[in-house]
Amino acid sequence: MTNENYGIGVKTGSDLTAKINDALEAMVADGSWQKAVDANLGPANYKNEPAPKIGDVKS
Fold first, then answer.
1. pLDDT band with cut points at 50, 70 and 90 for residue 6
2. What pLDDT, on the 0 to 100 scale, is given for residue 22?
3. How many angstroms separate the CA atoms of 52 and 32, rounded?
4. In this predicted structure, what is the pLDDT of residue 49?
5. Of all residues in the chain, what percent carry a pLDDT higher than 90?
């Protein structure tokens, strides 16, 4: 695993941007993000870092 930024591409100004960011933020807040990480990477004994910053991330 690396510290590369990943994203979901939508057209600039799309109404989907806020909906996607809200959904990702909710997953982090309710623990489902961590649950998915544990279920998919836990068997490999991978120790993940906290969820990445959500939104307009500049490198």
1. confident
2. 95
3. 14
4. 76
5. 42
* Gap between the Cα atoms of 7 and 14, Å rounded: 14
H helices present in the chain, as ranges: 16-30, 32-41
In the three-class reduction of DSSP (H, G, I as helix; E, B as strand; rest coil), residue 35 is classed as: helix
- Using an 8 Å Cβ cutoff, are 48 and 41 in contact? yes
Question: What's the rounded Cα separation, in Å, for the pair 29 and 46?
Answer: 21
Say which residue the tokens 């695993």 belong to: 1
Q: Is the pLDDT of residue 47 over 80?
A: no
Q: How far apart are CA 40 and CA 52, in angstroms?
A: 17
> Whole-angstrom Cα distance, residue 14 to residue 12?
6
For 54, other C-beta atoms within 10 Å of its C-beta total 15
